[in-house]
Each structure stands twice: as structure tokens, then as C-alpha cells.
DNA sequence: CACCCGTGGAC
DNA sequence: TGTCCAAGGGT
């Protein structure tokens, strides 16, 4: 493309722009454009030496695993109100933690959160380890979270690689290897880029860049502080990265959920086992969930009488690796009509139970409005 | 390494 | 409407 003489081309670039490293450019951008988040110490305070509370960083990082900032904010505030310190969380009733986590998903995180708090309280004197290795030895803390806490809470020069950073790095270097196979390579690239000064802010800057500028679709490269170093921007194909493998089709499973109420409106609930899907959470009794739509219509509990179940229609709930189509049935029964390992929960306290979203949907289908706020 | 593990929002 | 995806970890 032919270009006429432009003023911009005629002007010499300032030395600061032509010689700064990508990390320095990114930190300058972060100083100006960082997001303000409840668990974050913003750059002026961070540069003045103020460190965030490791408990806050750990709690937010675990909540943010595969979960959006928007969804986490309210849960983060609730947890700090209920349990202001890691010692408080360690001393909490696990059932109360599951109730507080209900709706956020990936419930193994909540079980590991509690285990981790107990380990920090009993084995580390209530203080989080300040190294990657020490952190990674704790339940629920893997490669990413250990590096992130070490960098953000303790200013360690650790290589933080999450989904955002993968996207930024894969575009900067046009990494053609598909994820997750490309992770070791990308980790080396991040490590080489991470500065000794302000590594915590650098990690957060990479994530902010990935979430606001270097987005999965329609990245705003014109506003990117390191576009001059970006090979994908130069090639004009940033959206092609990171390269991913095709994913498998999602199977459908079928089942039936039984919402039983007593004369006072209490609902019969059960507790799921600690392992597997929705582990440790509360549910209404139901059949197994199988791939055969014709199966599973026999109630999985006994009773002295046989209730007449009313067909309430169905719900569809999409999990990570399958879609669930649940038939919902309701009956008002005598309390001795159900003999199982559960309990009758009064209507007033139903919403506060450790019910995952799929179960709230099913109960709502049988008892419309039962989770409506009554204030 | 492949698979399991939730949910809600954006396009 | 379907598809993708979001600060991943455990096994």
C-alpha cells in the first residue's frame, strides 16, 4: 500500500516508546487502565509497598477458577462477611461453606477450600506459604493458582499462566501448537517476559489485557500497549490464536426428580455423596441419570403409602460434559410416605440450603415461586 | 494425558 | 438457538 508522507511518520519516536520492553509497556498501561476489583491492591498503593491480604487473594483466585469476575464478586463479599480470616474459615462447619458456595459451581473447589483453610491454620500457623512450592502442596491450589498467589500476594517472580495469558502469549508469538500441549512452551515464554520488578502487577496486567483488549473475539489491537511486539497483529490473524482442538459432542442424559412436600409445605431433601458430580451438595430424591430416555421412572425410595405423583413437566440443565433432561414430579404426602436417608426442610429455609442450581430449577418447576424473595 | 467437574452471560 | 467461554484442579 502506498502511503503519502504523514506527519506521524515524519516525527521521530520518543526513546521511551522505541526502547521499552513489552513488560514495561504493559505495566505503564496497567497503571493507567487497570480494573478495580474488591480483592486487588491498585498500582499506586502496590508501588508504595502495600501488599494484599493473602487470604483475599487465595479466596478470589479459587473462586475465579473457570468463573467470571462478575459471578465471583457477590460470593467473595459474602465469604469475607461470614469468615473474615482463614482461621474463621478453617473453624467453620463444612455444610455452611457448601451452602455459601451453592450456585457458584465446581463444588470440589468448596470442599478443597475448606481443607486448604484447615491445613493453613493447623500446619502453617494461620499464614499462607509464600512460595509456589509451598502453595501448590495445598488442596485446590494447582500450577496457576500457586503462581498467581506467589506473584500477587508475595511479589514473587513466578510465571503466571492462565487462560488470559495463554491468549496473549499465543498471539504475541503466534504459537501454532494447540493448547493444552502448548502450555510448557508458553510457560517458558511468560517466564522470560516476567520482570523482577512488580511481578504481581505484571501478572494482573496480563490478565487485564486478556480480558479487556486481547479478547477471544474481536480483540481491540489498536488499543493494545504491546501491539508493536505482537506477531499475530502484524500478520492480521490474532483471532486464530490460541489454536484449540475440536471438542467432543455433549451427550444427553435423562432422569426423574421427585419433589415431595408435606402438609406444611416442607420439602424432602437428601445429601449427595462427597465425590463426583455435585459432590457434597443437597438434592431432591431422584432416579439415576442415564442415556436411556425410557428408563428411570421408578421413585428411588420406599414408603408406607404410594403417593400419586403429578407430572410437572421437565427442565433442561447443561453441565460441562453432558446435557441433563429431568422430568419433575410432585406430590403432597404424609411424612411416612417416604423412607430414605433425607430430611424435611421447611419452606422458609429452603433457599438457604446447599442446593445446586439444577436442583433449584427442578424444585421451582414443581413449586413455582418458592425461591422468590419475600422481602 | 484425557476425562471429569457448574453456571451464566455474550454473541 | 447454539456455541463458546471464564483468573483450573484432581485423578
Automatic annotation (TrEMBL):
It comes from the Bacteria. Its EC number is 3.2.2.31. SMART domains: ENDO3c (SM00478), FES (SM00525). Gene3D superfamilies: Helix-hairpin-Helix base-excision DNA repair enzymes (C-terminal) (1.10.1670.10), Hypothetical protein, domain 2 (1.10.340.30), Nucleoside Triphosphate Pyrophosphohydrolase (3.90.79.10). CDD domains: ENDO3c, NUDIX_DNA_Glycosylase_C-MutY. One of its GO terms (biological process) is base-excision repair. This is Adenine DNA glycosylase. Transmembrane segments: none annotated. One of its GO terms (molecular function) is adenine/guanine mispair binding. The gene is mutY. Binds 1 [4Fe-4S] cluster.
Amino acid at each position: 500500500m502506498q502511503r503519502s508522507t504523514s506527519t506521524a511518520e515524519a516525527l521521530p519516536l520518543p526513546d521511551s516508546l522505541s526502547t521499552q520492553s513489552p513488560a514495561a509497556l504493559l505495566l505503564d498501561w496497567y497503571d493507567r487502565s487497570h480494573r478495580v476489583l474488591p480483592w486487588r491492591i491498585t498500582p499506586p498503593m502496590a508501588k508504595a509497598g502495600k501488599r494484599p491480604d493473602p487470604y483475599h487473594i487465595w479466596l478470589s483466585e479459587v473462586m475465579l477458577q473457570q468463573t467470571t469476575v462478575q459471578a465471583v464478586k457477590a460470593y467473595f463479599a459474602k465469604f469475607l462477611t461470614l469468615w473474615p480470616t482463614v482461621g474463621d474459615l478453617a473453624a467453620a462447619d463444612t455444610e455452611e461453606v457448601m451452602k455459601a458456595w451453592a450456585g457458584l459451581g465446581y463444588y470440589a473447589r468448596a470442599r478443597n477450600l475448606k481443607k486448604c483453610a484447615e491445613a493453613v491454620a493447623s500446619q502453617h500457623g494461620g499464614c499462607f506459604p509464600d512460595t509456589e512450592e509451598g502453595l501448590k502442596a495445598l488442596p485446590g491450589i494447582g500450577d496457576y493458582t500457586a503462581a498467581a498467589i506467589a506473584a500477587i500476594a508475595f511479589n514473587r517472580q513466578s510465571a503466571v499462566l492462565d487462560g488470559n495469558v495463554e491468549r496473549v502469549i499465543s498471539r504475541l508469538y503466534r504459537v501454532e501448537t494447540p493448547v493444552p500441549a502448548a502450555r510448557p512452551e508458553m510457560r517458558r515464554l511468560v517466564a522470560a517476559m516476567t520482570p523482577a520488578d512488580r511481578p504481581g502487577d505484571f501478572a494482573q496486567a496480563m490478565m487485564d489485557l486478556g480480558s479487556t483488549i486481547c479478547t477471544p473475539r474481536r480483540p481491540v489491537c489498536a488499543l493494545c500497549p504491546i501491539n508493536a511486539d505482537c506477531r499475530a497483529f502484524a500478520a492480521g490473524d490474532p483471532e486464530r490464536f490460541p489454536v484449540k482442538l475440536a471438542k467432543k459432542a455433549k451427550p444427553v442424559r435423562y432422569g426423574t426428580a421427585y419433589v415431595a412436600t408435606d402438609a406444611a409445605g416442607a420439602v424432602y431433601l437428601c445429601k449427595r455423596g462427597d465425590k463426583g458430580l455435585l459432590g457434597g451438595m443437597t438434592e431432591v430424591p431422584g432416579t439415576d441419570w442415564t442415556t436411556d430416555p425410557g428408563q428411570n421412572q421408578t421413585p428411588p425410595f420406599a414408603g408406607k403409602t404410594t403417593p400419586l405423583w403429578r407430572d410437572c413437566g421437565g427442565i433442561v440443565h447443561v453441565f460441562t460434559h453432558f446435557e441433563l433432561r429431568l422430568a419433575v414430579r410432585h406430590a403432597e404426602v404424609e411424612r411416612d410416605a417416604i423412607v430414605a436417608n433425607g430430611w424435611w426442610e421447611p419452606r422458609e429455609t429452603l433457599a438457604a440450603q446447599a442446593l445446586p442450581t439444577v436442583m433449584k430449577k427442578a424444585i421451582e418447576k414443581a413449586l413455582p415461586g418458592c425461591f422468590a424473595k419475600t422481602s
